[in-house]
Amino acid sequence: MIKEFRDFIARGNVMDMAVGIIIGAAFTAIVTSLVSDLINPIIGVITGGIDFSNLFVNLGEGEYASLAAARDAGAAVFAYGSFITAIINFLIIAFVVFLLVKGVNKIKDAASAKEEPAPAAPAGPSELDVLKEIRDALRKA
């Protein structure tokens, strides 16, 4: 059983998957920082500083000034603002990832275009073809 497990781990695809997960985690930190530190402030300026994350409907008794206060009090809330914020963040992150993938694909296409050999010049007629043409020309004469 240990030998089978070792063989399973030693397969290339398992190691590739592990590397992909590690790179994905690091990439997630970069994209999250890009969205929260660079893009969201610009959107905040455009929307006039509206903070959707604090929008909620209290489903129970009492009045609360903020979503955090309502949650701290244990009140049942319908936090639709957090959902809107999550959707906006998803759309921004998906667009940023799309742009990054598009850029990487463009670089890969450019690299593969350089690696492809230029098509060979078209070959002229073979010796046999030339001899056949001469034979045909002599028959006509």
TrEMBL record:
Channel that opens in response to stretch forces in the membrane lipid bilayer. May participate in the regulation of osmotic pressure changes within the cell. PANTHER family: LARGE-CONDUCTANCE MECHANOSENSITIVE CHANNEL, MECHANOSENSITIVE CHANNEL MSCL. InterPro entries: Mechanosensitive_channel_CS (IPR019823), MS_channel (IPR001185), MSC/AndL (IPR037673), MscL_channel (IPR036019). Belongs to the MscL family. This is Large-conductance mechanosensitive channel. It is a multi-pass membrane protein. It comes from the Bacteria. It holds the Pfam family MscL. Homopentamer. Keywords: Cell inner membrane, Cell membrane, Ion channel, Ion transport, Membrane, Transmembrane, Transmembrane helix, Transport. HAMAP family: MscL. NCBIfam families: mscL, PRK00567.1-4, PRK13952.1. The chain crosses the membrane at residues 12-35, 77-101. Its main location: membrane. It is found in: Cell inner membrane; Cell membrane.
